Amino acid sequence: MLWGTASTGVDKPDVAERGTTVRCPFCRHPDSRVVDSRETSEGDAIRRRRSCPECGRRFTTVEEMSLSVVKRSGVHEPFSRAKIVSGVRKACQGRPVEEDALALLAARVEDAIRAGGNPEIPADEVGLAILEPLRELDVVAYLRFASVYRAFESLADFEAEITALRAGGVTTAHAGGRSEHDTGPPGRLIPSR
Ligand SMILES: [Zn+2]
């Protein structure tokens, strides 16, 4: 639902392989060749060693990993904390949840996603990353969000979720096409049936 319909209409070309075009800082030649690239120790940036085809000098660039969300339609969109906040805010209507708490939640979601190390995240996984921090924030808002995100269809779905909440866990049922092998950090989700 967060990235379900809205679209910027801009699909950025994939530049992950060789990086963007970088001008030589020595002779101003408009392009350079990547001779080596590696992730920084934190894994959130890529350091590239480049060589200028004109003057032959070498230099280094550091590129921060941009996060993009892949919608069901296949369209890529930049990850946005503001979008997380607005999606969660709807679920929090009438609940005693401060704006600061929403911002904090969005930051936690981004951290969790970045920790996964994948620069392209299916929209479903963004929703999934919201569930746990939202459950800790406000259980009613969580139920609202989960019921839409996981497309609850019956009272039984709510019952199962509430039973899981009482047991202190989160169900993974109806998690939109998520497969077994891409579970997040251990302990974040507790299968309960
Ligand atoms: Zn040069």
The count of DSSP E runs of length 2 or more, i.e. the number of strands, is: 6
Proportion of strand residues: 15-25%
Oligomer: single chain
Cα-based radius of gyration, to the nearest Å:
21 Å
Strand and helix layout:
Layout: E1 33-39, E2 45-51, E3 58-64, E4 68-70, E5 76-78, H1 81-91, H2 99-115, E6 120-122, H3 123-137, H4 139-149, H5 155-166
Parallel strand pairs: 4-6
Antiparallel strand pairs: 1-2, 2-3, 4-5
Helix pairs in contact: 1-2, 2-3, 3-4
Bound molecules: zinc ion (ZN).
Zinc ion binds at residues 24, 26-27, 29, 52, 54-55, 57.
Keyphrases for this structure?
5 helices; elongated; alpha+beta; single chain; 6 strands; binds zinc ion; 193 residues
Explain this structure to me?
- This protein has 193 residues and is α+β, with helices and mostly antiparallel strands.
- 34% of the residues lie in helices and 16% in strands.
- The chain has five helices and six strands.
- The strands form two sheets. The protein has a three-stranded antiparallel sheet, with no helix packed on it.
- A hairpin with a 5-residue loop joins strand 1 and strand 2 (45-51).
- Helix 1 packs across helix 2.
- Bound molecules: zinc ion (ZN).
- Zinc ion (ZN) is lined by residues 24, 26-27, 29, 52, 54-55, 57.
